[in-house]
Write a structure and sequence with these properties.
Chain lengths: 124, 111
């Protein structure tokens, strides 16, 4: 079974750093783009960026460029989303999801499966 | 960015009746492959989103055939032929032709 399993909920203070993880199993982790998607409390979905684990090629949405860092360790089939200095506005649920085999530099589609989501709460 | 606009914002449907959700993009989603890079997702209450339809009209594996996607250019529709209680949740469209963006969502509830 193709699966993405994310790390557990986090409670942090503004200014702290944080790294979320997303571990893939049941498929060739290296050769599918992994996306990160944010859902702020009570709001819709926002695509943040993607990484190709085999060579760590990374692309960001302009809205998130410079705000977060996406990385991957293909040896342990895990992708990461990290912040160096959290803000209260970073609170929300963060999902990782796998793009389909057709994802390329000319376009991506087909996000499945999704991880279970990680709830991040940033509060003083 | 390509802006995705969904309508209606919410929908209340009697079980067994059809439902339709519209998604409009600010630019054509036609890819050079001939496919439209438009997906539909359903987020059931308390769950992660799940893929229903990709490339405009291709049903994802395991998705019941009461769900169908159609459309071209900038106008797309998701139809549910006979709504069931398990179909409640928020439906999102997403374009993948450029940096992916989602529509604002359509909440479907049962009457």
């Amino acid at each position: 079974e193709v699966q993405l399993v994310q790390s557990g909920a986090e409670v942090k203070k503004p200014g702290e750093s944080l790294r979320l993880s997303c571990k893939g199993s049941g498929y060739d982790f290296n050769t599918y783009w992994i996306a990160w998607v944010r859902q702020m409390p009570g709001k819709g979905l926002e695509w943040m960026g993607i990484i190709y684990p085999d060579d760590s090629d990374t692309r960001y949405s302009p809205s998130f460029q410079g705000q977060v860092t996406i990385s991957a360790d293909k040896s342990i089939k895990t992708a990461y989303l990290q912040w160096s200095s959290l803000k209260s506005s970073d609170s929300g649920i963060y999902y990782c999801a796998r793009h389909g085999v057709g994802c390329s530099l000319t376009g991506c589609y087909d996000l499945q499966p999704w991880g279970q989501g990680t709830l991040v709460t940033v509060s003083s | 960015d390509i802006v995705m606009t969904q309508s209606p914002l919410s929908l209340s449907v009697t079980p067994g009746e059809p439902a339709s959700i519209s998604c409009r993009s600010s630019q054509s989603l036609l890819h050079s492959s001939g496919y439209h890079y438009l997906d539909w997702y359903l987020q059931k209450p308390g769950q992660s989103p799940q893929l229903l339809v990709y490339l405009g009209s291709k049903r994802a594996s395991g998705v019941p055939d009461r769900f169908s996607g159609s459309g071209s250019g900038t106008d797309f529709t998701l139809k549910i032929s006979r709504v069931e209680a398990e179909d409640v949740g928020v439906y999102y469209c997403m374009q993948g032709l450029q940096t992916p963006t989602f529509g604002g969502g359509t909440k479907v509830e049962i009457k």
